[in-house]
Design a protein that fits this description.
InterPro entries: Crypto/Photolyase_FAD-like_sf, Crypto/Photolyase_N_sf, Cryptochr/Photolyase_FAD-bd, Cryptochrome/DNA_photolyase_1, DNA_photolyase_1_CS_C, DNA_photolyase_N, Rossmann-like_a/b/a_fold. The protein is α/β, with parallel strands linked by helices. The chain has 21 helices and six strands. Bound molecules: flavin-adenine dinucleotide.
């Protein structure tokens, strides 16, 4: 018994939250803390999502979510002392800054005689458990998943939402949430079609199981098909746990689709495994051969990529989808990343930073592992010399140019067959292009330049 504080971070839900269930053994004070260093590091789109998600969480806590502000190392122990809290609970983090903060805070709180319980609520398997027989960490996905995960104990079954005896808060502090919103209102349209919060996450999972799960393995690569779960921001903010998703899928008849979807959840586990083992994953090449890579500094090209003005339709469609919706389809993420890194020779860290700022699902593990994967500098990465041709990719996965035309309406005036590579159309037809730019680079030449740069590595 006693007063228990649950510190919400990336676990913004009540159900299947082991640390919250542990807190529920006493009277509960649910807390979210705005740490200035964490706020400064958060992307703009993530902040907008967090704004909505915290409002939703507060509602499901009958308005009793307490918002604190200040460096966690001092603000939390002070609050704990002032409120005579005996136990603090939280869901573990696995990013280097989070681990460091939590270790220091745990020591302070325990030194003050407070019990601390940190539990796993965001991964199916602890990242340190999966080890090769020789004790070293996995660097290749398939053995990681097969031997490191599937051969281990199955993911724990989800817990129900606990009954909470909430300690009433003395005053309304919701105005603190407003600091998450930008001054200009670009975010309003971006959030169209998203439903942040635990209930929204559950609805998204149910809709996926009732719909696109059937056919997921083949259709997931088609950006216009709406054939994936779009659970990534919900998972990132912990509005739903991977265990809830895993077990909901496991209840369905086993098919290639269910197996494939589970393996995608395992890619997320693999990313966290890599981040845990390589805390500098977001800025240091896993393969240090790439440290000598002759990257180009080209701000003008970077800006055209960011704004979806490269003149390569599938790349521009992806970058505009990102800007408009805070999301980009996975196949297109790979295409735009490959274009930046290989056709433009711009460092993968620039792409990672832009995604970090603009994705609603920006995630320290998935983002860093994926950028290094595309660059070829990461673990189990696509080889550098495998350079996507964005036109071939677009013709294959967006044959009718439906996705392209949604985000690059300038191309709608062209016959479908010219929308993937408008510069190849006869001059007469190109007149209809309404200001759409010429390609930033020649795809063939820039491919050859990338291969030469790669060959120059020691
Ligand atoms: C350059 C690049 C950057 C990326 N950055 C991020 C990021 O910041 N945050 C993020 O969550 N994902 C990132 N991804 C991975 C992937 O694109 C997204 O997870 C996926 O598109 C999310 O859509 P969904 O939820 O509909 O996926 P679904 O296909 O429905 O998959 C279900 C879940 O599995 C996980 N998953 C799927 N694919 C991957 C993958 N390749 N790697 C790791 N986990 C995966 C995600 O948690 C996803 O929500 C990135 C991929 C690339 C190529």
């Amino acid at each position: 018994m006693g007063k228990h504080l649950h510190w919400f971070r990336k676990d913004l839900r009540l159900a299947d939250n082991p640390a919250l269930s542990r807190a529920a053994k006493g009277d509960v004070l649910p807390v979210y803390l705005f740490d200035p260093s964490e706020l400064a590091a958060m992307g703009a789109a993530s902040k907008v999502w967090l704004f909505h998600s915290l409002h939703a969480l507060n509602q499901s806590l009958d308005g009793q979510l307490r918002l604190l502000s200040g460096p966690s190392q001092t603000a939390l122990p002070e609050f704990v002392a002032q409120n005579e809290i005996t136990t603090v609970t939280w869901t573990r983090r696995y990013d280097p800054a989070g681990i460091e903060m939590d270790q220091a805070l745990k020591a302070t709180l325990q030194g003050n005689g407070v019990e601390v319980h940190s539990l796993n609520g965001s991964l199916l398997w602890e990242p340190w458990d999966a080890k090769k027989p020789d004790g070293t960490p996995y660097r290749v996905f398939t053995p990681f998943y097969k031997r490191g995960c599937q051969a281990a104990a199955p993911p724990r079954a989800p817990l129900p939402a606990p009954k909470l005896d909430l300690v009433k808060k003395p005053h309304d502090d919701l105005a603190l949430l407003d600091q998450l919103l930008p001054d200009r209102d670009w975010h309003v349209d971006m959030m169209d079609g998203w439903n942040p919060g635990e209930a929204g996450a559950r609805i998204a999972l149910e809709a996926f199981i009732d719909g696109p799960l059937d056919g997921y393995k083949s259709d997931r690569d088609v950006p216009a098909a709406n054939a994936t779960s779009r659970l990534s921001p919900h998972l990132h903010f912990g509005e739903i746990s991977p265990n809830q998703i895993w077990h909901a899928i496991a209840k369905q008849p086993t098919t290639h689709d269910t197996a494939h979807f589970k393996s995608e959840l395992a890619w997320r586990e693999f990313s966290y495994h890599l981040l845990y083992r390589h805390p500098d994953l977001d800025h240091k090449n896993l393969n240090d051969k790439f440290d000598a890579f002759p990257w180009r500094d080209d701000d003008a090209a970077l800006q055209r990529w960011q704004r979806g003005q490269t003149g390569i339709p599938i790349v521009d469609a992806g970058m505009r989808e990102l800007w408009q919706t805070g999301y980009m389809h996975n196949r297109v993420r790979m295409i735009v990343a490959s274009f930046l890194i290989k056709n433009l020779l711009i460092h993968w860290r620039e792409g990672l930073a832009w995604f970090h700022d603009t994705l609603v699902d920006a995630d320290p593990a998935n983002n860093a592992a994926s950028w290094q994967w595309v660059a070829g500098s990461g673990a189990d990465a696509a080889p550098y010399f495998r350079i996507f041709n964005p036109v071939t990719q677009a013709r294959k996965f967006d044959a009718e140019a439906t996705y392209i035309t949604t985000y690059v309406p300038e191309l709608a005036a062209l016959p479908v067959k010219h929308r993937h590579a408008p510069w190849e159309a006869p001059a007469e037809i190109r007149k209809a292009l309404q200001g759409y730019p010429e390609p930033l680079v020649d795809l063939k030449d820039s491919r050859a330049r990338a291969l030469a740069a790669f060959s120059s590595l020691p």
